Amino acid sequence: xxxxxxxxxxxxxxxxxxxxxxxxxxxxxxxxxxxxxxxxxxxxxxxxxxxxxxxxxxxxxxxxxxxxxxxxxxxxxxxxxxxxxxxxxxxxxxxxxxxxxxxxxxxxxxxxxxxxxxxxxxxxxxxxxxxxxxxxxxxxxxxxxxxxxxxxxxxxxxxxxxxxxxxxxxxxxxxxxxxxxxxxxxxxxxxxxxxxxxxxxxxxxxxxxxxxxxxxxxxxxxxxxxxxxxxxxxxxxxxxxxxxxxxxxxxxxxxxxxxxxxxxxxxxxxxxxxxxxxxxxxxxxxxxxxxxxxxxxxxxxxxxxxxxxxxxxxxxxxxxxxxxxxxxxxxxxxxxxxxxxxxxxxxxxxxxxxxxxxxxxxxxxxxxxxxxxxxxxxxxxxxxx
Length: 385
Description:
The chain has about 375 residues and is α/β, with parallel strands linked by helices. Helix content is about 40%, strand content about 20%. It folds into two domains: about 10-270, Alpha-Beta Barrel (TIM Barrel), CATH 3.20.20.20; about 300-385, 2-Layer Sandwich (Sulfite Reductase Hemoprotein, domain 1), CATH 3.30.413.
């Protein structure tokens, strides 16, 4: 463990208090720990069980994804069967806010997704629609920005500075909400690279120390590597007063999702006690496997097992700086595999294999590993020359 005396700590940023149901985020309240239901929302029995499992593990908030009117109908029934503090992820259709708001305590939208839906309409008008719905239904908002899905205007403006684009997008939406008179919001800026998470949140907090921040390393991957990435990011930010709620995103079987809460609370307890873990030698070098958390967007549970098989199969490439991304859905899969050397985004019946941004075709789950190994060997051979 690192010497606690070498780690400078500061008081928590004096962020505004944002009420989410009976939970307060920011304003000096204890850092809230949350997770996301991994089951399909329309599977009501499984989703209610997942919410209960996460609550039993100590979750302060539970997020559920909604992508259609059928999901909304299921959400209404789920709400009637749990008193948990619920957040909803709007996915790509911001207009669903009107129908989900009566059933939840917080709504999360992604500015990148908002840009792509109804492009002819000004972004401010879309944000105003969401804010008005939230205000009317006593809901908080989360502006959830991901490095891999920043809107193309910001991406073009900042070029290679994708962290800058992410921060600028968050600041833009804060300014819109403030101008609309809606201040009951939190912000998240996430990436699969913990260093970008640290830099982005530090840059944002320097400009808007009043806004509560939701911390997380998205697509952190499988334990133990995913836990280490997350821990290192939190250990850099929380002692600097940055962070009001956290999410640990791990690729886990559905029945083990409560481990995300347990890991989050363990990290917070260690930071509070000054127990800072050292980073393993060469951590972040060599092979890097990114995999998204098992959530309700996963279109085939076989994705979870496939991610583990990819990790085992690719172990022989440990000494090579190669990134393999394994994504479980069509929402994040296509875009967030672009920056990987090899990417797999998993559909209901087949896995779409990519080399960088180039599509290599779709393969059955039981055949894609063999093709992946061929591509991995080709990259290794090219780098040996």
